[in-house]
């Protein structure tokens, strides 16, 4: 299948007051159109930096970032992003918050079509009836759902999620995982998810990329076999346990706790 996101031997060093900080050192990533990659790795290894490179918000010192067969050299409007703490504007209603990207990214939709699209997305994530509420009137999980709608409203072909469910309780998080599968079915996109939750990675992604400690390189790639939409029960099968064991061992290697040969 055609590659949509591609990183080739990406290297980057930040220049800080304390001297050079090498962050990325040989990142490789290939996500086909419609694929969903999860990226896991130790805290501070360079995961958010990776998302900024894919979105074109920064350019690496070395190596190549490709999107849609084009080298990424500037910010890309065809990318949607959602983060751990959704920043919704309190002086706007939920509907107006969701429509915000359409004020920035050029659109052919009329105002009423924009509203219809925002309402449709809110309905898709279970927030019908909350269009006129303010962000502070919603729970954390509901705000994250609204933020998801906002990142999808301009129909991006790439959705980047940087620990979007990290601040939620376990049950709300699991609800949102299921919502993500419904959203992807209705609004196909190519996904890049940053997470610290290994169960989340195998539930949502078809490819889990483990990054080494900083400076990060691609240490390990696990393909997650998919036959239809998973259920939460699928996380308690022997196959899931095997995948989680492999990923946990890889994270330990990335954290420098285990030698690669011990886990082989
Ligand atoms: N603009 C910047 N200038 C200087 N250093 C930076 C900059 N952005 C990030 N860093 C540093 O680069 C390293 C990687 O940061 P990054 O945010 O990509 O890590 P991360 O893997 O997303 O971490 P976490 O899991 O905690 O979210 C960190 O040490 C961070 O302090
Ligand atoms: Mg981060």
| Number of separate domains | 2
* Computed structural class: alpha/beta
Question: CA-to-CA gap between the ends?
Answer: 30 Å
What is the C-level CATH assignment of the largest domain?
Alpha Beta
Bound molecules: adenosine-5'-triphosphate, magnesium ion
Number of helices: 8
CATH topology annotation of the largest domain:
Rossmann fold
Q: What does this 3D model show about the protein?
A:
A six-stranded mixed β-sheet has the order 6-7-8-3-9-10, with helices on both faces. Strands 2-1-4-5 form a four-stranded antiparallel β-sheet. It contains eight helices and ten strands. With 264 residues, it is α/β, with parallel strands linked by helices. It folds into two domains: 3-78 and 157-263, P-loop containing nucleotide triphosphate hydrolases (Rossmann fold, 3-Layer(aba) Sandwich); 86-155, no CATH class. The chain binds adenosine-5'-triphosphate and magnesium ion.
Can you tag this structure with a few keywords?
33% helix, 8 helices, Rossmann fold, 264 residues, binds adenosine-5'-triphosphate, six-stranded mixed β-sheet, alpha/beta, binds magnesium ion
Outline of the structure:
This protein is α/β, with parallel strands linked by helices and 264 residues long. It has helices at residues 47-54, 94-99, 111-124, 140-152, 170-186, 198-204, 238-254, 260-263; strands spanning 3-16, 19-32, 36-40, 62-67, 70-71, 79-83, 158-162, 190-194, 207-211, 218-223. Magnesium ion binds at residues 47-48, 162.
């Amino acid at each position: 299948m055609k590659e949509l996101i591609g990183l080739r031997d990406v290297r980057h060093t930040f220049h800080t007051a304390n001297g050079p900080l090498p962050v990325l050192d040989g990142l490789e990533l290939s996500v086909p159109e419609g694929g969903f990659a999860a990226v896991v790795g130790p805290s501070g290894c360079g995961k958010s930096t990776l998302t900024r490179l894919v979105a074109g918000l920064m350019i690496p010192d070395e190596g190549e970032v490709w999107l849609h067969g084009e080298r990424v050299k500037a910010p890309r409007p065809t990318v949607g992003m959602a983060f751990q703490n959704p920043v919704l504007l309190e002086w706007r209603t939920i509907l107006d918050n969701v429509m915000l990207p359409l004020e920035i990214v050029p659109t052919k939709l009329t105002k009423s079509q924009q509203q219809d699209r925002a309402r449709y997305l809110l309905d898709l994530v279970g927030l019908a009836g909350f269009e006129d509420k303010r962000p502070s009137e919603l729970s954390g999980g509901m705000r994250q759902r609204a933020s998801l709608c906002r990142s999808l409203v301009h129909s991006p072909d790439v959705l980047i999620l940087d620990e979007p469910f990290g601040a939620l309780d376990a049950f709300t998080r699991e609800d949102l995982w299921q919502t993500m599968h419904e959203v992807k079915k209705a609004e196909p996109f190519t996904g890049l998810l940053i997470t610290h939750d290994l169960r989340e990675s195998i539930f949502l992604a078809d490819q889990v990329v483990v990054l080494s400690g900083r400076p990060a390189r691609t240490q390990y790639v696990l393909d997650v076999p998919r036959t239809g939409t998973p259920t939460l029960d699928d996380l308690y099968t022997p196959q899931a346990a095997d995948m989680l064991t492999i990923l946990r061992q890889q994270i330990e290697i990335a954290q420098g706790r285990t030698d690669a040969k011990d886990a082989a």
